[in-house]
Amino acid sequence: MPLPLVHHPAFDALFDEAHRFPMRKFTRLAEILVEDRLVPRGFHEPVPAPVEALELAHDPAYVEAVLTQRVSPTIEKAIGFPVDARVALRSRCATGGTLLAARLALDTGLACNTAGGSHHASRTGGAGFSVFNDVAVAAAVLLHEGTLGRVLVFDCDVHQGDGTARIFAGDPLVYTLSMHGERNYPQEKAQSDCDVPLPDGMEDKAYCALLPDLLQHALTQARPDIVFYNAGVDPHREDRLGRLSLSDDGLAERDRRIIGFFRDRFIPVAGVIGGGYSRDIETLARRHTILHRVAAEFV
Predict the structure, then answer these.
(1) Considering only CA atoms, which of 261, 254, 277, 271 is closest in space to residue 153?
(2) Would you say 78 and 163 are in contact if contact means Cβ atoms under 8 Å apart?
(3) Is it the case that residue 18 has pLDDT exceeding 90?
(4) pTM, full prediction
């Protein structure tokens, strides 16, 4: 069985190429996966996340504002772009994609979205290029359904998963771990269940040396029925917003150790791509495929 991969054409909201957020990477990422024969049976296509699912992690007034394109200028400024009809649809589809990836992971052990990881969106609004918090919505839906009992969010994006931490603050069923650049965005950090602030310039060896103890700690504390893994590539040394110094090989080794740790214990893993920022869309999209290539080693 090939690795289940989730994609929807609406993941790309067709921003201008000069925009700070590299929206075109989602289309190119999917194309590369097809070209390199990693999706021999095609992508699993999600449906847009329904309102009732979004409202399990977000305030209903904010959900309505997004779906009717009436988000306040203050929140749009925090997000980093206007929330028009294309962005609203993209955000719903990406969230539906992470939920679908989680369901597939529960069925098969491992699945990955080609989007997701919008971890700065909190209950009352979006921020940091995040409109809806897809991982939080997916986790909340599965818990609400009674599909599972405990969730681990293992977030390796270079920016703290502050929105996720705030949404699940005090929730004993969701354990949030964020491994992020200490001096990077957001300036005001939230409190995850486990925060691992990293110094600027950290390289592959030092980064990966932290993983064995962190993984064991997360397993012991979370006792998860599923892991949502945010495999952001913005810790890369060439990332415009990163400040760390990992290589492609370092990112691959990170993914391999994390996915392998949980799959060796038969714990389902749902992977999302998280952040990555470059004007070079080809290189960036290929960097994001590291997650999918490594995950394919475990099926």
Answers:
(1) 271
(2) no
(3) no
(4) 0.97
Sign of CA dihedral 150, 275, 250, 281: positive
Q: Minimal CA–CA distance to 222: which of 186, 185, 261, 253?
A: 261
| Residue 291 backbone dihedrals phi, psi, to 5 degrees | -55, -50
2 sits in the region (left: phi over 0; alpha: psi -120 to 50; else beta) called beta
Residue with tokens 């700065």: 120
CA nearest 153: which of 180, 128, 131, 127? 180
Is residue 81 within 8 Å of residue 22, measured between CB atoms?
no
**Distance between CA atoms of residues 231 and 71, nearest Å:** 29
Query: For 184-187, which contacts have Cβ atoms below 8 Å and span 24 or more sequence positions?
Result: 184/158, 184/159, 184/160, 184/241, 184/242, 184/243, 185/128, 185/159, 185/160, 185/241, 186/120, 186/127, 186/128, 186/159, 186/160, 186/162
Nearest to residue 296, comparing CAs of 271, 265, 267, 266?
271
**Burial of 35 per CB tally in 10 Å (0-12, 13-18, 19+):** exposed
Residues 6+ apart with CB under 8 A from 263: 109, 110, 269, 298
pLDDT-derived band at 93 (thresholds 50, 70, 90) equals very high
Which residue is it, tokens 């760390």? 244
Distance CA 87, CA 67 (A): 9
Residue 102 scores a pLDDT above 90: yes
CA angle at 226 for the pair 221 and 232, rounded to the nearest 5°: 90
